[in-house]
């Protein structure tokens, strides 16, 4: 009787194990691919938040402008000791950074205006991303 119990137990356990393996395989097959995005090593990035600002208000738009100015200076390696005497590389970097920031700022302001007018916006809330390639 003991031998028969062990065989039955073994048969049930192997059935349970097989069904668990099939279930695990099925759930793994249903997952989509995992995609990871990363910036290249030679890119300096800073994110400028505006969650605390009401960008429908001009004063808060100016505050955002000051924040972006600071971020541009940091990613482009502004040197306070050379104020007014930065090299051409800094100015080129700053121009590129602002070229990338301006459309993001305009979109953030439009989002705030949409929300002020209708209570909603189709534009997602994000931070302004200042990116420059190292030179």
Automatic annotation (TrEMBL):
Matching InterPro entries: UrcA_uranyl
Region forming the signal peptide: 1-28
Origin superkingdom: Bacteria
Keyword annotations from UniProtKB, A to Z: Signal
NCBIfam families xref list: UrcA_uranyl
Protein name: UrcA family protein
Organism of this sequence: Sphingomonas cremea
